[in-house]
Specification:
By secondary structure, the protein is α/β, with parallel strands linked by helices. It has 12 helices and 21 strands. It folds into 2 domains: 147 residues, Lyase, Ornithine Decarboxylase, Chain A, domain 1; 259 residues, TIM Barrel (Alpha-Beta Barrel). The protein binds ligand LLP.
Length: 437
């Protein structure tokens, strides 16, 4: 496993943020999500220093779906970043952190009336309209609250980025956005411009997630700028903003490239500046929405070994006390991860094992064929790079309790979410009292 951020081998035991994993296990139990604050800070600094331009203002929105908690929202706000949400639940979590309202932006392809009202009542920064139906829906809510709302329109720009099928978002049949090739696209834009309560900022796109191909982003920028210019001329209005989404790739294993975020940002800025120059067009604000690239590598999951099994077929399993309930990505996307026996770092003898969780599901394997030091009962296994879409996609399958989340830095640990309890699980349950014959 490649160490990242502040990970250190101290006498064979892994330390993150100066705190040993054995201490973390003793204090918070396992499974445990651990976030290295310095790791996240470095990513934010790289994004901020790379994504700047003299030609337009740049804005970074943290895509909170990657990992969100009240503490995370408070952490993000300290860096002056904006934040987005795609549901009432995410909004409510962000509100609970007392996040500056005008730095909150709302996404979603099927926003409920309640969710739209939450946005308008709380005067959030903007709503990204996904489709034509939302124009009047948002307009009417604004009318009811006698407020105006800044909006963008999410476009499907038809770029087939090279990533997993499930996380591509700009193919022609994607459920997100309105296609720039739709014959009614002009009418849709016109309708937004004409809706009095809506202040049209510009266009948004997001071509997909875990993308390494710089050219896909540049192609996206080119398409967005050209389309924005066309609409600006057609309707004779100034369109001040474009948002090119997130999706910047992250190294999970040696099969992935190690991305230099600062360099990638500079490259994207170059693409935008060059395209604007070629098109003789101006944009005032350019937005990006990184999620994974901020949190993935800074996050790890710590498990305790409960046992092992050598199958008749020859496969050796190590049983860990979590599984697909805290990380569904292997089962869902065939995602790959690296791991170590975190209390036996100096052990050189390795064996090939599969890390299986405790769910009633054969696919509940976090890593297949991991090369690990020989481990035994109560050893600690750390799976790295689980910070994005691990906690946020966790579930209570088999009534598993969701793990605690802890932030670490400078030898200190900060509990951000406590482990769920059986009482939490039962807190929504009601009696069924009907008599049956
Ligand atoms: N903006 C929009 C509109 C998005 O839909 C997404 C991700 C992002 C930004 C952030 O993308 P990121 O920088 O995190 O790649 N569950 C999947 C990923 C789904 C991504 C959904 N949208 C996974 O675990 O890989």
């Amino acid at each position: 496993m490649k160490f990242s951020g502040t990970m250190k081998n101290v006498d064979g035991v892994l330390e993150i943020g100066g705190v040993s994993v054995t201490d973390l296990k003793n204090e918070f139990g396992t499974p445990l999500y651990i976030y290295d604050l310095e790791g996240m800070e470095k990513k934010i600094r790289d994004l901020k220093s790379g994504f700047t331009s003299k030609k337009f203002k740049t804005n970074i929105v943290y895509a909170s779906k990657a990992y969100l908690s009240k503490g995370m929202a408070q952490f993000i706000e300290k860096f002056g970043l904006h934040i987005d949400a795609v549901s009432g639940g995410e909004l409510e979590t962000i509100f609970s952190a007392d996040f500056q309202r005008d730095k909150i932006h709302m996404h979603g392809n099927n926003k409920s009336l309640d969710e739209i009202e939450m946005c308008v009542e709380n005067s959030i920064g903007s709503i990204i309209l996904d489709n034509r139906d939302e124009i009047d829906r948002v307009g009417e809510v604004c009318k009811k609250f006698k407020k105006n709302m800044d909006v963008m329109l999410r476009l499907n720009i038809g770029i087939d980025a090279h990533t997993h099928e499930y996380i591509k978002t700009a193919k022609h049949n994607s459920k997100f956005g309105e296609s720039i090739f739709d014959t009614e696209i002009d009418e849709i834009v016109k309708k937004i411009i004409n809706r009095e309560e809506l202040n049209f900022l510009g266009f948004h796109c997001h071509i997909g997630s875990q993308i390494f191909d710089e050219m896909a982003f540049c192609e996206g920028v080119y398409t967005m700028v050209k389309f924005t210019k066309e609409m600006s001329q057609k309707f004779n209005i100034e369109i001040p903003d474009i948002n090119i989404g997130g999706g910047f790739g992250v190294r999970y294993t040696e099969e992935d490239t190690d991305v230099d975020l600062k360099k990638l940002m500079k490259k994207i800025i170059d693409c935008i500046e060059n395209t604007l120059e070629e098109e003789e067009f101006n944009i005032q604000n350019v937005w990006i929405e990184p999620g994974r690239s901020i949190v993935a590598a800074a996050g790890s999951t710590l498990y305790t070994v409960g046992g092992e099994k050598k199958t008749f077929g020859g496969e050796k399993y190590i049983f860990i006390d979590g599984g697909m309930t805290d990380n569904i990505r292997t089962a869902l996307y065939s995602a790959k991860y690296e791991s170590v026996v975190a209390n036996k770092l100096n052990e050189t003898k390795k064996e090939v094992v599969s890390l299986a969780g405790k769910c009633c599901e054969s696919g509940d394997v976090i890593i297949k064929n991991a090369r690990l030091a020989k481990c035994s009962l109560n050893d600690l296994i750390l799976v790295s790079c689980t910070g994005a879409y691990g906690h946020s996609m966790s579930s209570n399958y088999n009534k598993a309790l969701k793990p605690a989340v802890v932030f670490v830095k400078d030898k200190k640990s900060y509990l951000i979410s406590r482990r769920e309890t059986y009482q939490d699980l039962l807190s929504t349950e009601l009696d069924f009292l009907l008599e049956v014959e």
